[in-house]
Amino acid sequence: MEFLHAAEKLKNELRHAYKSNGLRESVAEHSWRLCLMTMVSAEDIEDIDRDKCLKMALIHDLPEILAGDAYRLDLSKQEGRHEIEKAALGKLVKLLPKGAAREITDLWLEFEEGITMEARLVKLIDRLEVLIQHNEADVSNWNDLEKEIQYGLAEKHAERYGFLLEFALEIDEETKKKLTKAGYHPKKLGQEVYERYYGQLDVVGKSRP
Known about the structure:
With about 210 residues, the protein is mostly helical. The radius of gyration is 17 Å and the shape is globular. It has a single domain (about 1-200), classed as Hypothetical protein af1432 (Orthogonal Bundle). It has eleven helices and two strands. It is about 60% helix and about 5% strand.
């Protein structure tokens, strides 16, 4: 019961993103659609454990119960983030029976390392869900950096993780249309700028696949 009460805080923890109704999105709302996207996206991918993917998607942001959300494009908040979240997860799983605690810890570490097919797929969907949410929000809620790098970001993510390229291109096309309609002239994101924000290590000593 104590663990579930703690988990409720994800309903209150707000992310940087806004929703289509103009309200800030919560971590729990993001995680819900991430699970839904994982369920439908993993259906036709061969040799992938969809159940593991769903569990990974469900628990990937649990450390934010204690650590809070960190806006990905604010690089000043990324240094040491893995260790902060790992410590937070360790405190949380102490509230659970050993079996559940071990399963959640193992799944979270696998996700963070991003080596297995399941981890790469969920990492990609995590990134794509963010872009879809941005496209659903009013452009007035986008900051200048997002307006600059959003177009082409989905394709770069898909190339990095190795799945869902066609779907990513659809997201990028939505982005281009949204920005163009709002009077902007988007340029497709280049590799150098992409690596500035997404090229650093996810885990110390382990580069992203």
